[in-house]
Amino acid sequence: MKIGFFELEQWEKDYLADKMSALGEVAMIDSILTAENLPTENDFEIISVFVNSIIDARVLDHLPNLKLVVTRSTGFDHIDLDLCKSRGVAVANVPSYGEDTVAEYTFALLLNLSRKVHLSFDRIRETGSFSLDGLRGFDLKGKTLGVIGTGRIGRNVIEIATGFNMNVIAYDPKPNAEYAAKMNYQYLELNDVLAQADIVTLHVPYTEASHHLIDAESFQRMKKGVYFLNTARGPLVDTMALVGALRSGQVAGAGLDVLEEEGVIKDELNVLTSGKLEGHDLKAVLADHLLVDMPNVIVTPHNAFNTWEALKRILDTSADNIKNFVAGSLSNLVN
């Protein structure tokens, strides 16, 4: 079979070389795969991509022999699943690789916010001042953490929160009562979690139904002075609403590893100069810039997954997904 890997670093190519050597012809390509960045080769039967590649109709049209897309991520909103299914193209993901990794990063953001580490660092680096003015933070012990989504990552966040002696309340459409009893937390309706939490953190997948799960009304339901974390997906949050809540003081601070329209932010110059703005929410792009400039907001570049251990788990599972498919069995299918 002809297999194509996209968005690879050199160490990833080296790591995958032995794993893929017996499966046929394998091309390892540095660049992303999008309609604007199609490969010269179009006879791939299997492709593996990361989250910056967009698998849509134009890409599928370019790859008529395609039978399997393996995304090296848990999320798959960058792939048109319905279209793939209609064309007989299977899609597989990596359902579990970063439950500890992303949970740890969530608390890295929270601790930076709660103790104003980023402001302290910037003050000394930029001005040389060791003044403590404006740097007073707060303890996590005794605070109520509202966890939205109690899948693998959400449950690890709960375990870390327990270690900090925090109180935990949670929302999930499919509550895990056994785990809640074990970890001594309570499931509530979403609005009740928002109303009672001192800190709200998102750990849900992005789907059409969860678009702007947190909107202006959601922020108004929260306690005044709440802290907000998102290491899941940017479009879960109405960005303009978040900016408004931060400006009014309804939200005291935010830690964001993902942004709505982060794809435009990452490659803004190219998007603007190409004139290809259709399908993008320019208000959200503007709001992203406003968030980046706010002193009580920490924005990081979708980095929560990014550890050596997690990346190797991603590559191992992706390789296994391909090996199983070639052998006639299917693993980790999402469509």
Automatic annotation (TrEMBL):
The keyword NAD applies. Residues 12-335 form the D-isomer specific 2-hydroxyacid dehydrogenase catalytic domain. It comes from the Bacteria. Transmembrane segments: none annotated. Keywords: NAD, Oxidoreductase. The keyword NAD applies. This is Hydroxyacid dehydrogenase. It comes from Candidatus Vogelbacteria bacterium RIFOXYB1_FULL_42_16.
